[in-house]
UniProtKB/TrEMBL annotation:
GO terms for biological process: regulation of DNA-templated transcription. Keywords: DNA-binding. This is DNA-binding CsgD family transcriptional regulator. GO terms for molecular function: DNA binding. The keyword Signal does not apply. The lineage of its organism: Bacteria, Bacillati, Actinomycetota, Actinomycetes, Mycobacteriales.
Length: 194
């Protein structure tokens, strides 16, 4: 077994565009999601609880040590291709999204509501919640201090609208991590908006 599992969805695809689109869709459902490679899964870093694989041929190359304990969902026609042991094969047709969403909810529970933010809001607020002052954040991003405060107020208001009030930047940090906008190592999570 390689590494522990985290409460997220991994997307493995030969096309980075399709992987990014799938990650964006999963994020919009309120789950934490990221694009992964087989090497990422082997690295010993936390593995996602769910792995969405684009195509059975990719899944056939996954070693059992990588998929142990992970719900693997293979999207595509299985035909005569062997898929990873224990994988769920979902045919690529009109109800694919609904079936995949069902499996995600079954494993991870209800995704809840994820607050949306622009990539710029994400970048500016990540700098701010990770310890920079308003002035330092403004200087780093070449914006006015009032713009930093505006980003903070807008995003805080969005959290309040869905019943998750933010009273200070420490709470915003926790909310951004919970929603996948910010990783524990301080790097930015994937943005649902391009």
């Amino acid at each position: 077994m390689t590494g522990r599992l985290d409460h997220s969805v991994g997307v493995l695809s030969s096309s980075s565009f399709e992987a990014d689109m799938t990650v964006g869709w999963v994020l919009s459902l309120g789950y934490v999601a990221r694009r992964v490679t087989v090497n990422d899964l082997r690295s010993g870093a936390p593995r996602p609880k769910i792995l969405i694989v684009d195509g059975p041929s990719i899944s056939a190359d996954l070693p059992p040590t990588v998929t142990h304990g992970v719900r693997v969902i293979v999207v595509g026609e299985s035909g005569t291709v062997t898929v990873a042991g224990g994988a769920t094969v979902v045919r690529d047709d009109t109800d694919t999204a609904g079936v995949v969403q069902h499996w995600i909810a079954r494993v991870l529970g209800d995704g809840g509501e994820r607050v949306q933010m622009t990539r710029r809001e994400q970048e500016v607020l990540a700098t701010y919640v990770l310890g920079a002052t308003v002035r330092e954040t403004a200087d780093l991003h070449y914006i006015a201090e009032c713009t930093v405060r505006t980003h903070y107020r807008r995003v805080s208001r969005r959290y309040e609208e869905i019943g998750r009030p933010i009273a200070n930047k420490a709470q915003l940090l926790l909310a951004m991590v919970a929603d996948g906008w910010l990783r524990l190592d301080g790097s930015l999570g994937p943005s649902a908006q391009v």
